[in-house]
Amino acid sequence: MSSGYQNRNLTRREFLHRITLAGGLALAAACTQAPPAAPNPTAPSAKPTAAQLATAPAVGKETVVHFWHIFTDEKGRAAYDEVVANFQKANPNISVKVNLVATEPYKTMIRSAVSSPDGPDVFYIWPGGSYLDPMAEAGAVLDLTPYITEFGWDKTINKFALEQVKYKGRLYGVPNNLEKNQMWYNVKLFKDHGLEPPKTWEEFDSVAQDLKKKGIHPVVLGNKERWTAGHFATAMLGLYAGRKYIAEVAPEGKDLYDNQKFVSALNHIQELIRKGHYAPGINAMDNAEAEILFFTGKAAMHFALATGEVRSMLTNAPTFQLDFFNLPPVSKDQPYTVCGGVTGTWAVAKNTRNPEATLKFLGYLMDVDAQKIIVKAAGRISPVTAAVTPETIHPILAKVTDDIGKVPDMTKWIEYYMSPAVNDAWLNGLQGVVDLSTPAEKFLAQLENIRQEDAKKPKS
User: Fold this and answer.
1) Run of H or E including 69
2) Is residue 43 part of a domain?
3) What is this structure's pTM?
4) Hey, is 226 helix, strand or coil?
5) pLDDT tens digits, one per residue of 287-322
6) Parallel/antiparallel/unpaired status of strands 63-69 and 122-125
7) Which of 292, 320, 326 is nearest to 306 (CA)?
8) Which end of the chain is more exposed for a tag (fewer CB within 10 A), N or C?
9) Nearest to 232, CA basis, from 342, 341, 339
10) 138 and 171 co-located in one domain
11) What is the pairing mode between strands 122-125 and 166-167?
């Protein structure tokens, strides 16, 4: 999955400068996103064998764990530095060497580094068909399934998160953070105009019509970077088809992309846009520019991720009254699901130099106390539910976390299932869907052809 989901937020100076441009952009477009016990070497064979542990340096001696991640922002870096320092204090004979790399170069280097003798032991990696799954298929990462119960992850980690990152039923990466898409709305604007968050699509249409009469864009979406339309499309696919159906279609080919459920979902998106419910210029705006229209009251709603939206609000519009609602169901007969999931994982290289020390560090990294440090400093939703409280995170994100625990199902972004080639075609093609230049049926037929051609290519 593209790391574009960790979108960059504008500084306040940039935000204020671009406010003057946002209105013009929309107008112009109208015309033209307690460390666990050490592993038991006699347990199932997926763990390091007794021979491996015997030849590895003992944890009681000086050992080194190489830890690679991408959290270069000041707060993220500080949070992980604190976790590493606390671990080393509790384990003075284990030295954790941190390799901090910016996202774009990391995406290139990690593919080869994971199998290198100079590569990481514990490392950040995106789940799904572009990164973690191929590594698991190639045998480059350790199967962590036996540690689910040993480290208690089945009790501490959100159930959706744990299931989403499995590959062929096995766990190769531990969820790092959770995200969820929802429709954010301007509380004050809604109150001022006597509006309530809609519970049905009929109510959604009515709210949108009322807002348009008052000269306010009902919804804004900035898809210049492509990923935001992918999020909204996945949410609609989930409503029309359900998570299980998507999970069968996308990776296994048990059905075709150009099926009627998917067509109906994308037709619904195009209908909303044709009605003028979205601010014009969807593909001309990036997500930060869409946030400007939303936070300045020019648009009433913004479909977006949780962490990025709240972080941007706190930076650029700290007095803004923000709340959210989930998209309405499309049918009483269709099982309800929201869109969201795991945006990153921690994996262990199969050829880790010091298996016992490495796994001990991984267990500590997912401990509730370590997770509280990360949540509080970095403002990210942890998959370790007990780490997310109103004391460790902004109340609105605590509310999102509570909602994640209540929803009946969660559909992960369909890009996670796709190969890089199909993913690229999906995101590019959606730009034609949201600018209404490509009918939904035509786009999905093209995507299915690309998927079938890609499946014939030998996998490296």
Assistant:
1) strand 63-69
2) no
3) 0.81
4) coil
5) 999 999 999 999 999 999 998 899 899 889 999 999
6) parallel
7) 326
8) C
9) 339
10) yes
11) unpaired
